[in-house]
Amino acid sequence: MTKEKLSVFVTMIATITLSIILLSMVFVMLVGLFHDNIDNAKIFEAITPAFQTIVGGFIGLITGIKIGEKE
Question: What is 1-49 written as a DSSP string?
């Protein structure tokens, strides 16, 4: 596998993984928002740092891969 193909493969896997994680988190948040026994403020308190960590990590990974391609 060439360096370019490996880079595209890793980028696609990271993008697909990010999409699955974010869709899952949105689904869980929506279920929690409409559930009567769950306080909505607690949902946002728990999920906001997770969103920031996951999105930031994957954006850093994809950016690093793209920068490394050009060198």
Answer: --HHHHHHHHHHHHHHHHHHHHHHHHHHHHHHHT-TTS-HHHHHHHHHH
